[in-house]
Protein 1
Amino acid sequence: MKDIIAQEIKKVYDELSPAIESFTSRVCPECSEPCCRQRFGIYEREDILFLKTLGYEINDADDRLGPEERCQFLSNRGCTRPRWQRPYRCTWFFCAGLLEAMEADSPAGYRRVVDLLNKIKQLRMELLGLK
């Protein structure tokens, strides 16, 4: 049963990613101080359960880097990890500028992102046996 839930979570991430990237591709390159910090790139126990259920080999963050340093997975083209392989907190973090752009530019697109994030949250709780 867990593998079915994990596959569904991945499916929602795959749907969510282009919706978020439609905003981040316009807002983030203009930012002089990217929000992506090393502390966000570290997997938590729940992330590891999700990824291992899918059979994914964990490639965790380099713990030699300080938590406030730029995330090692951030390239000049965005994150090098597919969204479904990122720690959960990476997917949920939106800076104020990005949120403002999302709400102002496309209220429907913003609502879609929120709905998909809530679906991931619900499925994740099921995977963890919390619902």
Protein 2
Amino acid sequence: MHENFDAPPTPPDPESLKRGHEWRDMNLRGLMWFMVIFFGIGLLVHVIVWISFRNVAHTAVSNDPAPSPLNTGPAQPPSPILQPTQKYHEKQPWQDLQEMHERENAHLSRYAWIDEKAGIVQIPIDRAMELIVDHGLPVAPAANVKPSN
């Protein structure tokens, strides 16, 4: 079952042409040339970009000023140090936040005197909300304001 590729193609079936079917085989030689050219151009572009980046990196390094002989090490950040580092602060930000929430919750859930002489006290926030629900918000007396003419 050896086919002769040099022979002219057989004429298409009229019914196949009516349905819009292809009647010729794909040109394998053209496809192969397309693939070789496509990948060759892609490889060429990659090499050009690699050479360009290498040259840019070399230029950037050569344009950097020489380090000062007085430089003793990396610069320390200005005070106050806000975020942890092993050298300056042992806690992570989430630990600081957790401690802050614990302090706030302790402050909001205790009884304390604000001004003992005036009789002003601090009560837990939950108790304050219960009192507001039970008794409502205090109403300030209406101010005696005369309309201006």
Protein 3
Amino acid sequence: MSDTTLATPTGAGSGAPEFFVTPGYGANLLAGLRYSQAVRIGDRVETSGQGGWDPEWAPGGGPAFPEALEEEIVRAFDNVALTLAEAGATWRDVVAVNSYHVPSAADTIGEEHNRVMVEQFRLRMGDRAPIWTQTGVPVLGAPGMRVEIRVTAVVGHDG
């Protein structure tokens, strides 16, 4: 078990939940807000929402998000990759994505959000096209945060 893996219950079998904490921001969020970054049950991995924050960011700390929206989205994808890796998965294992966006226009999430999300899907997942639900929201969990991405992955299956 790595330093970033939280113990499973005593007597747990291979189907028991195993929780993971991403080094840096994940440990800070566990300490400050009491949640893990991922859970693995068998070959299925679920992540909590990952923002485009600095890898060492802590709640209540200084500026966490880049000024450029594109950089924030790319960093959120990077943070998903870090979190998946802790649980033994990659973007190539992802089958479902939920993304939450603070819209850049009154009537749409915005072209830049969509463009960067799709570019990152193609870069990180190749030909795999996961199911994707994209939701516009008025605010996210931290000041200045404009995007949050959570995923479901199934490890070890080609698709």
Protein 4
Amino acid sequence: MPVVALIVAFVAVPIVEIYLIIQVGQAIGALPTVLLLIFEAVLGAWLVKREGKRAWTALETTLRFGRLPGRELADAALILIGGTLLLTPGFVTDVFGFFFVLPFTRPLARRAVMAWSARRIASRARKGYAPEHGGTFRIYRGDERNTSE
């Protein structure tokens, strides 16, 4: 699965982005398309800066009160990923970037990421440790190790 994800990320996404940029350029013209992409990048950078400061403040406050910062760390990660996507030229990446960065859509993204990661962790936990060794570790203590194996 990771190989497929990398192929999609590095091959399919740029092809789709180039196709959309060409289509938008044909519809509204080359200069407006370039200006739109620049505007989205500038707006995204401003938003990431603003939301990043908010996330940092929330993280500091949570730590100051001695609570676990799960939600705050998830928000910070989403803002980081969203900022990266917003600075990447293209319309598809901008849609996902804004989805991760905007304060009213970020909770939806956070829930989706948390649900995905919980499912992944649960499936790994059912398999046990060290899947390459049949799902279990053999633990040797002191002189219990049998060298004949």
